[in-house]
Protein 1
Amino acid sequence: MAQLWGGRFTKETDQLVYNFNASITFDKKLYKQDIEGSIAHVKMLGRQGILSEEEAAQIVAELKKIKKEVEAGTLAISDQYEDIHSFVEAVLIERLGDVGKKLHTGRSRNDQVALDMRMYIRTEVAQTDELLKELLETILSIMKAHTETIMPGFTHLQKAQPITLAHHMGAYFEMFKRDRFRMRDIYERMNYCPLGSGALAGTTYPLDRDDTAKALGFYGPTLNSMDGVSDRDYVIEYLSALSMIMMHLSRFSEEIIIWNSNEYQFVEIDDGYSTGSSIMPQKKNPDIAELVRGKTGRVYGALMSMLTTMKGIPLAYNKDMQEDKELTFDAIDTAKGCLALFQGMLATIHFQKDQMRKSAALGFTNATDAADYLVNHGVPFRDAHGIVGQIVLYCIEKGISIDEMSLDELRAVSPVFEEDVYEAISMETCVNKRLTVGAPSKEAMERVIVVLEKELAESGFLTEEWEQKLLFTP
Ligand code: ARG
């Protein structure tokens, strides 16, 4: 047991209490942010004359060494310490003696952990954005290749109207595009530095909070020290956005699973992304898609947990907030892993174009267009709907599709039908007459693809300047 605060205690902490209270087993993940934050803090203390320049330089040099050693694996982060902050400070004091004891001047673990967590989440938000971008690139390349790949579009999982694979993929493009906007939005709101908030009421030392905020790549300091130490909104916003990403991935996974089924056979998942059965030799299972669908609950769980943790906390810092870490870290790793794996699966999937085309043709997906044909020849829509309903019933009884009916058969139901009806209800016509923005025709899709391509090329919010900030090494 090694703790920073033994002074006012007369008795050792009970071991169980100590273990319950300690966070080192999971907050060791924050070592990099912790050390970088300390370096910026100490440099500022030196510049402000709160520590001498020599003391500051000595501490900074040692902190850099500690970071290098942790990264090289020559200095193990020992679980004997209460948390990562205690560990770093204890090592420093062990090596520098009294000078090391000056590190924590004008700082509390409350603003320290608030800073560490913000820096950690900030980087993750940017990395999530990159993963989303890669997924969008994969989706876009499928869209470009399949503007003429006809498939059935569904409502209620019933065949509805013919669309194209490009069009179907485009719907997911929009979802993940919104997810990227959410990343940028979270980043913009959270990128303010809580360091200098102290325990809750700032500090009496003449800290330069602008200086540390700038040095650490923040837009500026947070403007209320109570909020600075106790705000975890950005964690909740990020978990909420990750939940949304998982929801999108889960819907997509569900479709892949259906499309990969023996009944549909719209896709074949690459061998590298499927698994077999230990008993049934014929099996090739869509396990990756199923796992992505399944892991969604885990990420939602982290969001619910965090919302609940925060809901009763009075200002300012309370130890409940230590619960912001384990499930959040797990949710981040889960969601990022799912994004990367799903992208790989999608990039290698094989689309069975013939099967999709056949499925569209066999499901009366041109019934609306048959009704529209009648409307274009003066039949009121409600009557046209009834006529085509009768035609569909007739086809079901005979086991044929509408375009397999002879003109005589069609005219027996409505004399309005002429030879040109076959052209009007072909799958190609059904798709390619839908020309409005956002509709599936090749022409409309190609116009949209140009826009999406442009958006994707421009929208990386990790510009060089951003990257510089994120790769901050003092
Ligand atoms: N381990 C704590 C956390 O994660 C660090 C802050 C502790 N501050 C305190 N006053 N006990 O929230």
Note: Residues 249 and 352 are 21 Å apart (CA to CA).
Protein 2
Amino acid sequence: MVLRSFALANAEAIFAAVGRIVAAAPFRQMQTPGGFRMSVAMSNCGPLGWVTDEAGYRYAASDPESGQPWPPLPALFLRLAAEAAAEADFGDFVPDACLINRYEPGARMSLHQDKDERDFSQPIVSVSLGLPAVFLFGGLKRSDPARRIPLTHGDVVVWGGPDRLRYHGVLAVKDGAHPLVGACRLNLTFRKAH
Ligand code: MD6
Ligand code: FE
């Protein structure tokens, strides 16, 4: 379910909170298990954070760069994620992980499934800020055709139920400048990982 502009009224507060989070846990371009450096730079907040390195993809309670716990999930983030999930009939969503993605122009996310979480009955809530992007929403096989869904500043996507394991990705972000966020797209995905 795409909730257009659902986070718009909170965009400045979310952006300010991301600034505080990445002051403690800076954006970094992680390595895939196959040895490629991701074009998207990532950080996390919450009890768990999604990480990847040569050993694989996983959730970790501390930032491998610092050895410190990830910054806490702001109350605003928890409230927004639960309210968005409820709009899509997923009640009582309490995420324990928030992955923060930064796309500079040219950065992209190839088709993938989110399957490192333990309970696929829990949805994922995704908040987009900054530059627009085209989200690819595919099927349960990588080769299935994908819809192209434009996402702009303030849009929220709730993703779950029978669609939870659909392949998805993001086309290369185009050059531009957003008045609040600057020359990038930010995406926050809230997950119940453990
Ligand atoms: C992004 N999002 O929009 C990448 N995954 O930057 C995702 O990979 C994603 O938005 C699962 C559910 C929602 C998402
Ligand atoms: Fe994903």
Note: The CA atoms of residues 7 and 80 lie 8 Å apart.
